[in-house]
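Field log, afternoon session.

UNIT: design team B
ACTIVITY: writing a sequence onto a fixed backbone
BACKBONE:
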């Protein structure tokens, strides 16, 4: 599908966000992401899948001299995405993408980003169940699967970390 999300899924996400105050409200920027920012020194950062904007607010406080752009498909259309940005940041986002939209989203990231992407991806089922009965993590795959998928799009893996205990795959990517 040539879209970031189907209209039905966008409406479902919007409803879930509205009904669940804590969902999509993370404010933590992890040290691995901070390392990427320090190394690549992006001028602007796209917080893709920003939810309620907690991470965007944290970025603005940590990096007041950088331009932070918030985007979440539950609340904004694709036309709100910037044409180019130095860095794209996602935290617990890519596993929520509809499987038929994932390649489109990753290709969009590849075309938008100028310097670096940082992704933190959960590799297990979520505790949350969507109103339609599906697990909130629509894509549950291994770090190896994600690595291959990202490389197929054209990204170069600069550094990666696997946290087996927390079921997270963190990765810094360049073109």
């Amino acid at each position: 599908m040539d879209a970031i999300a189907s209209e039905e899924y966008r409406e479902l996400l919007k409803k879930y966000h509205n009904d669940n105050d804590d969902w999509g409200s993370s404010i933590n920027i992890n040290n691995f992401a901070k390392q990427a920012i320090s190394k690549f020194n992006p001028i602007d950062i796209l917080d893709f899948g920003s939810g309620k904007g907690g991470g965007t607010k944290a970025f603005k406080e940590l990096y007041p001299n950088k331009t932070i752009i918030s985007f979440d498909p539950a609340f904004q259309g694709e036309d709100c995405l910037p044409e180019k940005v130095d860095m794209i940041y996602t935290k617990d986002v890519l596993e929520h993408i509809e499987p038929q939209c994932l390649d489109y989203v990753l290709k969009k990231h590849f075309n938008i980003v100028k310097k670096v992407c940082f992704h933190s991806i959960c590799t297990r089922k979520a505790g949350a169940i969507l109103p339609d009965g599906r697990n909130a993590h629509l894509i549950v795959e291994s770090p190896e699967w994600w690595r291959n998928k990202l490389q197929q799009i054209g990204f170069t893996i600069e550094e990666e970390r696997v946290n087996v205990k927390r079921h997270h795959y963190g990765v810094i990517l360049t073109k």
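LOG NOTE: The longest strand covers residues 113-122.
NEXT ACTIVITY: expression trials, pending approval
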